[in-house]
Write a structure and sequence with these properties.
Elements: H1 3-8, E1 12-17, H2 38-45, E2 50-56, E3 77-79, H3 80-84, H4 95-102, E4 109-111, E5 137-141, H5 163-169, E6 174-180, H6 185-195, E7 199-202, E8 207-208, H7 216-226, E9 230-231
The structure holds pyrazine-2-carboxylic acid (VGL) and zinc ion.
Zinc ion is lined by residues 56, 58, 64, 116-117, 142.
């Protein structure tokens, strides 16, 4: 698939996910080689007519941070059942409210991350090498303390961000996601783009993966393929 053709098409939008230093190799939530894709994405972003950026942006004490819980470390999983059983405490977060959110999540559990993309910190800024001035929209996500948001279209509790409607209103039929991380925010955004009825064009070379849990890259790619994504090399 040719970049020139694809980017000229007014019905195709480029979706640049979470290109923030906290997701680079030396960042707070390191994605190996995350910084390697900036040049390619910058080239793409200068061409597409409709461009949307997302920015992972959390308040301190966010429910996705391992540090918000006593007895939890980063890259562990918080389950509804252990919180319900009183095995895990959170001095910062109201338990009943959190339980009701966890109940709505896939697998009724949440991966716990190192503190990352804290609102107002340098690691949360979108990479300045990208042409933010061309963006139709810069969408912040994960701003509610109790709800994480991987997808650009829906927060993890199912509430809509409005992005699907915005893209449809602008006549967009096709979405090209890129950025970080391929097995979390890019994957969830891609999946929801398909669910919203957009054709999904996915080039793996413009993303990098957390690769936690093991095989999450393979699972994400396989699932997107099954859902009808076009896996291409642009
Ligand atoms: C992301 C984990 C936590 C991502 C954001 O951008 O893929 N992953 N927050
Ligand atoms: Zn996050």
């Amino acid at each position: 698939m040719q970049l020139a053709e694809l980017s000229k098409d007014p019905q195709t939008a480029l979706l640049v996910i979470d290109m923030q230093p906290d997701f680079y190799s030396k960042g707070a939530l390191p994605v190996k080689g995350g910084e390697e894709i900036v040049e390619k994405i910058s080239l793409w972003a200068h061409r597409f007519q409709t461009l949307v950026f997302t920015q992972d942006f959390h308040p301190e004490g966010h429910m996705s941070f391992a540090s918000s819980y006593t007895g939890k470390k980063a890259f562990e999983i918080l389950t509804y059942d252990e919180l319900e059983a009183g095995e895990i405490q959170s001095p910062l977060i109201q338990r009943e409210a959190l339980l009701s959110v966890l109940q709505k999540l896939p697998q009724k559990s949440q991966v716990l991350w190192p503190d990352h993309c804290v609102a107002g910190t340098a690691g949360a800024e979108i990479d300045k090498r990208l042409p933010l001035e061309r963006a139709a929209l810069i969408l912040r996500k994960g701003m509610r303390s109790l709800v994480d948001s991987y997808s650009a279209f829906y927060e993890n509790d199912g509430s809509s961000t409005g992005l699907g409607a915005l893209l449809r209103d602008r006549g967009i039929k096709r979405v090209v996601p890129c950025g970080l991380a391929g097995d979390y925010c890019v994957y969830w955004s891609a999946k929801d783009a398909i669910r919203e009825g957009f054709e999904l064009i996915f080039d793996e070379s413009a993303t990098r993966f957390v690769n936690f849990p093991e095989k999450s890259r393979e699972r994400a790619l396989e699932d997107l393929k099954v859902r009808g994504a076009k896996l291409v090399s642009i």
